[in-house]
Amino acid sequence: MGDIRALERADLPAVMALLREGLPGFPLDEEGLAAAALEDPWRDEELPSLVATESGRVVGFIRSQARPMLFDGRAVRGVCLSDLVVSPGHRRGAAGAMLLGRLLKGPQDVSWSDSATDFVVRAWRTFGGHVDHARAADFMLVLRPLRWIAAIAAARVRGRDVGRALMPVGALPAHAAGPRISGHRAPEQEPGVSGEDAGPAAIAAALPAIRGRVRLMVDWDEPQLAATLRRIEALGGDLIVRLVRRGEAPIGWYACLSRRGGAARVLHLAADERAVGAVFSDLVAAAAAAGATVLTGRAEPHLERPLRERLAAVGFAWRPVIRARDPELASALATGASLLTRLDGELSRVH
């Protein structure tokens, strides 16, 4: 093994070749990777993306995304680690573990990854991490049952697999049968609550009022929100970003990537626990208005009540992994008092 060092701009062509080979369908081009790994407003010189080299040649890569966070009002450091790839000739060696180990030994308080292979899970356990069971499942709400069933039937008639755009969760959505059969009606939006399309400046200004009783969250600011939302829009689909108010007071916001006739994927929903249901109701209405057939996303702890109220289908999806040094912080991560969403993490895998 040669060397582990920080990613440099000159490494990007070699890194892109590794990503295209090791992660088929990787959505970023070289310019997008540069923006995410080298030009990010929150880039931390102590937690850079890394490459592994041998004889001057790049043979491995891991991306680091620094995330300033708040825990009970105090600043803590977080980092999302993603896109770990190693060239085929070095996969039996230690390059991947060395890249991961170098970053996990950094100064951050909490580290996470939104998806992991068996090898990556074993490596995280070696360094004191574990599977984040609280965020290991996705949910599915069918918004247009007849269109959904017809699309699935058409795919099967043509001999095609039913992809995640139609069946993001491998579970039977009982709510799709409608209230006459299921005997259950989804809650209606409460009076006085309304949502509006919003940009990064409006969202950032409203965050202090929205945080409420949430103990742990990424400390989003306007520049980082703007940069992150631009990256998501570049991936394709219709990005829905809305601020929800009760009267004039902001109570929550969300970001959702929608494809007409397909799935609308929730990337982020932030609200005080007393307002989560109202914000989620606005999200369901907005996704339906955008033409989505299915609403899906990670079944995060703070969404338990609105998902239960709608009989959402829930099933295992990705395998997130996490590591926290502080036992109190680790305990908070397993509850609805924490907020750690897909927007906070691996944006290259939001579809």
Question: What's a quick, concise take on this entry?
Answer:
With 351 residues, this protein is an alpha+beta fold. The protein contains eleven helices and 15 strands. α7 crosses α8 (222-234).
Topology (elements, then pairings):
Elements: E1 3-6, H1 12-22, H2 30-37, E2 50-54, E3 57-71, E4 74-86, H3 95-104, E5 110-113, H4 118-126, E6 130-131, E7 137-142, H5 145-157, H6 179-182, E8 193-197, H7 200-210, E9 216-218, H8 222-234, E10 238-246, E11 249-258, E12 263-271, H9 276-289, E13 294-298, H10 304-309, E14 313-316, E15 321-324, H11 327-333
Parallel strand pairs: 4-5, 12-13
Antiparallel strand pairs: 1-2, 2-3, 3-4, 3-9, 5-15, 6-15, 7-13, 7-14, 8-10, 10-11, 11-12
Helix pairs in contact: 7-8
Question: Your description of this structure?
Answer:
This protein is of the alpha+beta class and 351 residues long. It has 2 domains: 3-134, Aminopeptidase, CATH 3.40.630.30; 137-317, Gcn5-related N-acetyltransferase (GNAT) (Aminopeptidase, 3-Layer(aba) Sandwich). Helices cover 30% and strands 28% of the residues. The protein has helices spanning 12-22, 30-37, 95-104, 118-126, 145-157, 179-182, 200-210, 222-234, 276-289, 304-309, 327-333, and strands at residues 3-6, 50-54, 57-71, 74-86, 110-113, 130-131, 137-142, 193-197, 216-218, 238-246, 249-258, 263-271, 294-298, 313-316, 321-324. Helix 7 (200-210) packs across helix 8 (222-234). The longest helix is centred in the C-terminal third of the chain and has 14 residues, at 276-289.
Structural class estimated from helices and strands: alpha+beta
Kindly report the CATH topology of the largest domain: Aminopeptidase
The first-level CATH class of the largest domain is given as Alpha Beta
> Helicity level, as a percent range?
25-40%
CATH architecture of the largest domain: 3-Layer(aba) Sandwich
Q: How many domains, in number, for the residues?
A: 2
What is the helix/strand order? EHHEEEHEHEEHHEHEHEEEHEHEEH
What is the overall pLDDT average? Answer: 89
Strand count: 15
The CA-CA distance between the termini, in Å, is 35 Å
